[in-house]
Amino acid sequence: MNHPKTYASKTITTPAGKLVIEGPVSPEHLAALTFHEGLKAFRPAPRQQEALVDIAALPEGRIILVRADELVVGYVTYLYPDPMERWAEAKLENLLELGAIEVAAPYRGGGVAKGLLEISFTDDYMNDYIVLSTEYYWHWDLEATGISVWEYKEVMKKIMGSVGMEVFATDDPEICSHPANMLMARIGTRVDLPSIERFHKIRFTTRNLL
After folding, report:
1. 8 A C-beta contact, residue 100 and residue 41
2. Which domain of life is it from (predicted)?
């Protein structure tokens, strides 16, 4: 499956100033920038930058970022599911995972997260994909936001829903381990029926023994 990536960008005005949202970006462009120290939800900022450079170099990998001049203050990633995850068992070349979305605390608000998603799906080629996202409450910055896990869940549903992502039921153990966790997905308008059926099948692996 070919993986053309159509670059797009826009400038938004936020309480933290003017920010540029752009992507998918090349690994070279990403490596030349500096990561905000607050981008540490998954690993320290310098190591996260290295990981994103590697993703950007993958044929299917897509990194959309938001920056203040040369300082990266947020990003969203897209790549094939980890081979160790159940989603990879579907063996679908048109299944991408929204692996992470993160915005540094001082730059949250002003529609930054929605802007990252909007630019992501500006590329019409994304309509050839099923894009899934596994939302786990332990990745959410509840302390900084000061809201409850349930309020945060509603915020995430609203942000993801802005680009057509919906909540889907699943028996995945990690998602089922807490009621705030959820599986969300966007099925592109050109995804074929067999792929959709395989996606729905992989959502449930527990067999009904009755």
Report:
1. yes
2. Bacteria
